[in-house]
Write a structure and sequence with these properties.
The chain contains ten helices and eight strands. It has helices spanning 21-30, 47-56, 88-114, 121-125, 137-144, 151-158, 173-182, 192-196, 201-213, 228-241; strands spanning 5-7, 35-38, 60-71, 74-81, 186-189, 218-223, 244-248, 266-267. β3 and β4 form a beta hairpin.
Protein backbone atom coordinates (compact mmCIF):
# COMPACT_ATOMS: atom_id res chain seq x y z
CA UNK A 1 0.00 0.00 0.00
CA UNK A 2 2.97 2.38 0.42
CA UNK A 3 3.21 2.84 -3.35
CA UNK A 4 -0.24 4.42 -3.63
CA UNK A 5 -0.03 7.79 -5.37
CA UNK A 6 -1.63 10.65 -3.41
CA UNK A 7 -3.02 14.09 -4.24
CA UNK A 8 -5.04 15.67 -1.43
CA UNK A 9 -5.61 19.18 -2.79
CA UNK A 10 -7.75 20.02 -5.83
CA UNK A 11 -10.75 22.08 -6.88
CA UNK A 12 -13.93 21.61 -8.90
CA UNK A 13 -16.54 23.91 -10.42
CA UNK A 14 -17.99 24.31 -6.91
CA UNK A 15 -15.25 26.85 -6.27
CA UNK A 16 -12.87 28.05 -8.98
CA UNK A 17 -11.89 24.87 -10.80
CA UNK A 18 -12.87 23.93 -14.35
CA UNK A 19 -13.83 20.27 -13.81
CA UNK A 20 -17.12 18.85 -12.61
CA UNK A 21 -16.90 15.89 -10.19
CA UNK A 22 -17.35 13.49 -13.13
CA UNK A 23 -14.57 15.14 -15.12
CA UNK A 24 -12.28 15.30 -12.12
CA UNK A 25 -12.59 11.58 -11.38
CA UNK A 26 -11.92 10.85 -15.04
CA UNK A 27 -8.69 12.87 -14.78
CA UNK A 28 -7.77 11.14 -11.51
CA UNK A 29 -8.00 7.76 -13.25
CA UNK A 30 -6.10 9.06 -16.29
CA UNK A 31 -3.25 10.32 -14.09
CA UNK A 32 -3.13 7.07 -12.06
CA UNK A 33 -3.78 8.76 -8.71
CA UNK A 34 -4.98 6.33 -6.05
CA UNK A 35 -5.88 8.54 -3.08
CA UNK A 36 -7.41 11.99 -3.56
CA UNK A 37 -9.52 14.68 -1.92
CA UNK A 38 -11.70 17.49 -3.21
CA UNK A 39 -10.89 20.66 -1.26
CA UNK A 40 -12.94 23.47 -2.78
CA UNK A 41 -12.55 27.00 -1.46
CA UNK A 42 -15.14 27.54 1.28
CA UNK A 43 -17.47 24.99 -0.32
CA UNK A 44 -18.43 21.36 0.21
CA UNK A 45 -20.95 21.24 -2.64
CA UNK A 46 -18.96 18.73 -4.72
CA UNK A 47 -17.83 16.46 -1.89
CA UNK A 48 -20.60 13.87 -1.71
CA UNK A 49 -21.10 13.68 -5.46
CA UNK A 50 -17.39 13.11 -6.03
CA UNK A 51 -17.31 10.54 -3.24
CA UNK A 52 -20.09 8.53 -4.88
CA UNK A 53 -18.34 8.53 -8.27
CA UNK A 54 -14.98 7.67 -6.69
CA UNK A 55 -16.43 4.69 -4.83
CA UNK A 56 -17.93 3.37 -8.05
CA UNK A 57 -14.46 3.60 -9.61
CA UNK A 58 -12.89 1.91 -6.54
CA UNK A 59 -10.72 4.92 -5.72
CA UNK A 60 -9.74 6.04 -2.22
CA UNK A 61 -11.54 9.34 -1.63
CA UNK A 62 -11.18 11.75 1.29
CA UNK A 63 -13.81 14.39 2.01
CA UNK A 64 -12.24 17.83 2.14
CA UNK A 65 -12.60 21.59 2.17
CA UNK A 66 -10.22 24.57 2.05
CA UNK A 67 -11.22 27.37 4.42
CA UNK A 68 -10.00 30.93 3.96
CA UNK A 69 -8.70 32.70 7.06
CA UNK A 70 -6.65 35.77 7.97
CA UNK A 71 -4.49 36.83 10.88
CA UNK A 72 -2.85 40.24 11.14
CA UNK A 73 -3.41 40.87 7.43
CA UNK A 74 -1.86 37.54 6.39
CA UNK A 75 -3.87 34.90 4.55
CA UNK A 76 -3.91 31.26 5.63
CA UNK A 77 -5.77 28.42 3.93
CA UNK A 78 -6.77 25.64 6.28
CA UNK A 79 -7.56 22.29 4.70
CA UNK A 80 -10.10 20.12 6.50
CA UNK A 81 -10.16 16.36 5.89
CA UNK A 82 -12.91 13.89 6.79
CA UNK A 83 -15.35 16.71 7.49
CA UNK A 84 -19.08 16.12 7.73
CA UNK A 85 -20.37 18.29 4.84
CA UNK A 86 -23.76 18.55 6.55
CA UNK A 87 -22.39 19.87 9.86
CA UNK A 88 -24.27 23.05 10.80
CA UNK A 89 -21.32 24.94 12.28
CA UNK A 90 -19.16 24.19 9.24
CA UNK A 91 -21.86 25.26 6.80
CA UNK A 92 -22.47 28.47 8.76
CA UNK A 93 -18.75 29.26 8.74
CA UNK A 94 -18.50 28.74 4.98
CA UNK A 95 -21.59 30.88 4.37
CA UNK A 96 -20.10 33.67 6.49
CA UNK A 97 -16.89 33.55 4.45
CA UNK A 98 -18.90 33.98 1.25
CA UNK A 99 -20.78 36.94 2.74
CA UNK A 100 -17.48 38.65 3.48
CA UNK A 101 -16.61 38.55 -0.22
CA UNK A 102 -19.70 40.49 -1.34
CA UNK A 103 -18.49 44.04 -0.50
CA UNK A 104 -15.20 43.49 -2.35
CA UNK A 105 -16.74 43.92 -5.80
CA UNK A 106 -17.88 47.48 -5.05
CA UNK A 107 -14.41 48.49 -3.88
CA UNK A 108 -12.76 46.86 -6.89
CA UNK A 109 -15.21 48.42 -9.36
CA UNK A 110 -14.64 51.88 -7.84
CA UNK A 111 -10.90 51.42 -8.23
CA UNK A 112 -11.28 50.37 -11.89
CA UNK A 113 -13.40 53.44 -12.62
CA UNK A 114 -10.73 55.62 -11.02
CA UNK A 115 -8.30 54.05 -13.47
CA UNK A 116 -10.51 55.09 -16.39
CA UNK A 117 -12.43 51.86 -17.04
CA UNK A 118 -16.16 51.95 -17.74
CA UNK A 119 -18.21 49.53 -15.64
CA UNK A 120 -21.69 48.47 -16.72
CA UNK A 121 -23.23 47.66 -13.33
CA UNK A 122 -26.54 46.52 -14.77
CA UNK A 123 -24.73 44.10 -17.07
CA UNK A 124 -22.82 42.73 -14.08
CA UNK A 125 -26.05 42.18 -12.11
CA UNK A 126 -27.40 40.00 -14.95
CA UNK A 127 -24.06 38.41 -15.86
CA UNK A 128 -23.62 34.64 -15.85
CA UNK A 129 -20.73 32.51 -17.07
CA UNK A 130 -19.89 28.90 -17.73
CA UNK A 131 -18.50 27.44 -14.48
CA UNK A 132 -16.16 25.23 -16.51
CA UNK A 133 -14.13 28.34 -17.31
CA UNK A 134 -12.95 28.35 -13.72
CA UNK A 135 -12.44 31.43 -11.59
CA UNK A 136 -15.29 33.50 -10.22
CA UNK A 137 -17.99 35.89 -11.45
CA UNK A 138 -16.08 39.17 -11.00
CA UNK A 139 -12.95 37.89 -12.75
CA UNK A 140 -14.86 36.44 -15.71
CA UNK A 141 -16.94 39.60 -16.09
CA UNK A 142 -13.78 41.73 -16.20
CA UNK A 143 -12.31 39.42 -18.84
CA UNK A 144 -15.48 39.41 -20.94
CA UNK A 145 -15.67 43.21 -20.65
CA UNK A 146 -12.20 43.35 -22.28
CA UNK A 147 -10.77 45.12 -19.25
CA UNK A 148 -8.14 42.41 -18.82
CA UNK A 149 -6.96 39.41 -20.84
CA UNK A 150 -6.89 36.71 -18.17
CA UNK A 151 -6.03 35.81 -14.60
CA UNK A 152 -2.33 36.72 -14.88
CA UNK A 153 -3.18 40.12 -16.33
CA UNK A 154 -5.86 40.53 -13.65
CA UNK A 155 -3.43 40.11 -10.73
CA UNK A 156 -0.11 41.37 -12.13
CA UNK A 157 -1.32 44.36 -14.15
CA UNK A 158 -4.89 45.42 -13.42
CA UNK A 159 -4.68 45.14 -9.63
CA UNK A 160 -0.90 45.27 -9.21
CA UNK A 161 -0.21 46.93 -5.88
CA UNK A 162 -3.90 46.88 -4.87
CA UNK A 163 -4.46 43.22 -4.10
CA UNK A 164 -5.98 44.35 -0.81
CA UNK A 165 -9.10 45.23 -2.81
CA UNK A 166 -9.57 41.59 -3.81
CA UNK A 167 -9.25 39.77 -0.50
CA UNK A 168 -11.65 39.83 2.43
CA UNK A 169 -10.82 39.88 6.11
CA UNK A 170 -11.77 36.33 7.11
CA UNK A 171 -11.98 34.79 10.61
CA UNK A 172 -8.76 33.75 12.31
CA UNK A 173 -7.20 30.39 11.31
CA UNK A 174 -7.89 29.20 14.86
CA UNK A 175 -11.63 29.50 14.12
CA UNK A 176 -11.20 27.63 10.84
CA UNK A 177 -9.29 24.82 12.57
CA UNK A 178 -11.83 24.55 15.38
CA UNK A 179 -14.86 24.43 13.07
CA UNK A 180 -13.15 21.66 11.09
CA UNK A 181 -12.60 19.70 14.30
CA UNK A 182 -16.24 20.25 15.33
CA UNK A 183 -17.28 18.86 11.94
CA UNK A 184 -15.30 15.69 12.66
CA UNK A 185 -12.37 16.75 10.51
CA UNK A 186 -8.60 17.11 10.64
CA UNK A 187 -7.13 20.61 10.04
CA UNK A 188 -3.99 20.96 7.91
CA UNK A 189 -2.22 24.17 6.89
CA UNK A 190 -2.22 24.34 3.09
CA UNK A 191 0.96 25.28 1.17
CA UNK A 192 2.59 26.94 4.19
CA UNK A 193 5.26 28.77 2.20
CA UNK A 194 2.56 30.64 0.26
CA UNK A 195 1.66 32.33 3.56
CA UNK A 196 5.02 32.34 5.32
CA UNK A 197 7.52 32.93 2.51
CA UNK A 198 8.38 36.50 3.58
CA UNK A 199 8.93 35.63 7.24
CA UNK A 200 12.25 34.71 8.84
CA UNK A 201 12.83 31.13 9.97
CA UNK A 202 12.25 32.06 13.63
CA UNK A 203 9.05 33.90 12.71
CA UNK A 204 7.84 30.94 10.66
CA UNK A 205 8.40 28.54 13.55
CA UNK A 206 6.64 30.88 15.96
CA UNK A 207 3.61 31.18 13.66
CA UNK A 208 3.51 27.45 13.04
CA UNK A 209 3.75 26.71 16.76
CA UNK A 210 0.79 29.01 17.39
CA UNK A 211 -1.26 27.41 14.60
CA UNK A 212 -0.55 23.96 16.04
CA UNK A 213 -1.74 25.18 19.46
CA UNK A 214 -4.88 26.38 17.66
CA UNK A 215 -5.62 22.83 16.49
CA UNK A 216 -3.77 22.50 13.18
CA UNK A 217 -2.65 18.85 13.02
CA UNK A 218 -0.11 19.03 10.21
CA UNK A 219 1.30 20.77 7.14
CA UNK A 220 0.95 20.32 3.41
CA UNK A 221 4.71 19.96 3.04
CA UNK A 222 4.63 18.70 -0.56
CA UNK A 223 3.19 21.49 -2.67
CA UNK A 224 3.64 23.15 -6.06
CA UNK A 225 4.28 26.37 -4.12
CA UNK A 226 7.39 24.97 -2.46
CA UNK A 227 10.98 24.88 -3.61
CA UNK A 228 12.93 21.80 -2.43
CA UNK A 229 14.55 23.67 0.46
CA UNK A 230 11.15 24.84 1.74
CA UNK A 231 9.74 21.31 1.52
CA UNK A 232 12.71 20.04 3.50
CA UNK A 233 12.26 22.63 6.27
CA UNK A 234 8.53 21.90 6.65
CA UNK A 235 9.18 18.16 6.70
CA UNK A 236 11.77 18.62 9.42
CA UNK A 237 9.34 20.73 11.42
CA UNK A 238 6.56 18.13 11.16
CA UNK A 239 8.83 15.24 12.09
CA UNK A 240 10.19 17.14 15.08
CA UNK A 241 6.68 17.99 16.29
CA UNK A 242 5.16 14.61 15.30
CA UNK A 243 2.65 16.30 12.99
CA UNK A 244 0.83 14.96 9.95
CA UNK A 245 2.48 15.42 6.54
CA UNK A 246 0.33 15.80 3.43
CA UNK A 247 0.82 16.71 -0.20
CA UNK A 248 -1.28 18.14 -2.99
CA UNK A 249 -1.22 19.80 -6.39
CA UNK A 250 -3.80 22.55 -5.76
CA UNK A 251 -5.00 21.72 -9.27
CA UNK A 252 -7.81 23.87 -10.70
CA UNK A 253 -8.13 22.03 -13.99
CA UNK A 254 -7.44 24.41 -16.87
CA UNK A 255 -7.92 27.55 -14.78
CA UNK A 256 -4.38 27.58 -13.34
CA UNK A 257 -2.33 25.93 -16.06
CA UNK A 258 0.87 25.76 -14.00
CA UNK A 259 -0.61 23.22 -11.55
CA UNK A 260 -1.22 19.66 -12.67
CA UNK A 261 -2.88 16.72 -10.94
CA UNK A 262 -0.41 14.56 -9.07
CA UNK A 263 2.35 17.18 -8.96
CA UNK A 264 4.45 17.11 -6.95
CA UNK A 265 4.45 13.34 -7.30
CA UNK A 266 4.09 11.83 -3.83
CA UNK A 267 3.15 8.43 -2.43
CA UNK A 268 1.93 7.16 0.92
CA UNK A 269 5.50 6.40 1.92
CA UNK A 270 6.40 10.10 1.52
CA UNK A 271 3.65 11.22 3.88
CA UNK A 272 2.33 10.86 7.39
CA UNK A 273 -1.43 10.88 6.89
CA UNK A 274 -2.36 9.25 10.19
CA UNK A 275 -6.17 9.16 10.46
CA UNK A 276 -6.57 10.98 7.13
CA UNK A 277 -6.09 7.68 5.30
CA UNK A 278 -6.91 4.14 6.25
CA UNK A 279 -7.42 1.15 4.00
CA UNK A 280 -11.06 -0.01 4.13
CA UNK A 281 -11.55 -3.56 5.42
Amino acid sequence: MTNLRVDLHMHTTSSDGTWSPEELVKEIKKNKIDVFAVTDHDSVDSVLKTEKIAKAKKLFFVRGVEISSTRQGQFYHILGYHIDPHHKALKAHLEENHKRLIPLNDRAFEYLEEQGHHIDYEAYDHYTYDKKRGGWKFLNFIIDSKICKGIDDFFTTLFAGRLDLLFANFPDPKEAAQVIIKAGGIPILAHPDASLKEFSLDEKNEILDDLVKSGVAGLECHSTYHKPEATKKYLEYCKKKNLLITGGSDCHGGFVISRHLGEPEVYLSDLNLGPIFSVPR
